[in-house]
Task: inverse folding
């Protein structure tokens, strides 16, 4: 689920946290990194759970409409098929999702008033009206489309977005990633047990690259500072924004200590990171520093890449 750019951002956040806590070790930074990954994974589980939970609320809404003293024809015809569908129930019954929801006590965050208002807002939307006008509301495809529509609707809702920001500190960074994963999962509903494990942050990119980037940037911190300082064009390193300096150190660390990553990839990726987290002026400044350092280091033979197409950059 996570790309190297996502991993770079998590590593940056962990290193930034390390710089703000006195006597924090590299081990502590790695622990923060893994905690951030766990929260990203739990946010995916929560969005899936919340989407299905809102969809299931049509069962309660249907019961209330039909139990009115004088129900209208619309009340009596209101279908609870979506909430009872296997598409929705497979998400709510998922052992993987419920494990995440229980671990972080997330079920209690979906108060009935919020669930009800989100469902009603969706039913009143164009997407909700399209579902309600379908010929067969019990059709699996119609229920799947409705659940995907609800998920998209929730992620555009101010009240739900506010809740996600409160629950998950890095939600602003993770939102587009979670939306993409959510749509992919819901397109495959009904889901079977074990499906969520394939989205769990793991593998070489997360466990090796991300941890290595934190370790090596921390271990070579003083050397990286000494290497960068002469290229600051009379700018006192103490006046450089802390986040910008950490990004510079991470990028230079990749130049020197990650032989299979092309310098052009390092440049492009960290410039995208700086674009998201700093100013336009900082992006131009850091781009100039990294480009100059890369050229100088290549001339000095300090950058040694291996692999096809990387030996001579």
Result:
């Amino acid at each position: 689920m996570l790309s190297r750019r996502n991993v770079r951002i998590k590593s940056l956040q962990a290193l930034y946290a390390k710089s703000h806590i006195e006597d924090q070790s590299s081990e502590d930074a790695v622990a923060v990194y893994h905690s951030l990954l766990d929260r990203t994974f739990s946010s995916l589980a929560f969005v899936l759970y919340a989407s299905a939970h809102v969809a299931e609320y049509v069962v309660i809404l249907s019961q209330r409409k039909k139990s009115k003293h004088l129900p209208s024809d619309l009340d009596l015809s209101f279908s609870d098929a979506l909430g009872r569908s296997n598409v929705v129930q497979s998400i709510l019954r998922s052992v993987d999702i419920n494990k995440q929801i229980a671990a972080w006590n997330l079920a209690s965050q979906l108060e009935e008033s919020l669930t009800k208002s989100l469902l009603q807002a969706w039913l009143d939307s164009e997407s909700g009206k399209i579902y309600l006008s379908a010929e067969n509301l019990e059709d699996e495809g119609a229920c799947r489309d409705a659940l995907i529509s609800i998920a998209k609707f929730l992620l555009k809702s101010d009240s739900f977005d506010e809740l996600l920001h409160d629950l998950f500190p890095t939600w602003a960074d993770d939102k587009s990633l979670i939306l993409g994963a959510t749509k992919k999962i819901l397109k495959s509903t009904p889901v079977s047990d074990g499906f969520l494990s394939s989205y769990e942050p793991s593998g070489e990119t997360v466990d090796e690259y991300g941890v290595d980037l934190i370790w090596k940037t921390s271990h070579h911190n003083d050397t990286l500072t000494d290497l960068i300082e002469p290229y600051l064009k009379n700018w006192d390193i103490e006046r450089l924004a802390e986040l910008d300096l950490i990004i510079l150190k991470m990028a230079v660390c990749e130049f020197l200590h990650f032989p299979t990553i092309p310098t052009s990839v390092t440049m492009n990726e960290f410039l995208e990171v700086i674009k998201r987290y700093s100013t336009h002026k900082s992006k131009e400044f850091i781009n100039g520093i990294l480009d100059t350092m890369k050229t100088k280091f290549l001339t000095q033979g300090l950058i040694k890449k291996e692999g096809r197409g990387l030996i001579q950059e």
User: Anything to note?
Assistant: The chain has two domains: 4-199, 220-300. The chain has a mean pLDDT of 93. The chain has 16 helices and no strands. Residues 4-199 form one domain.
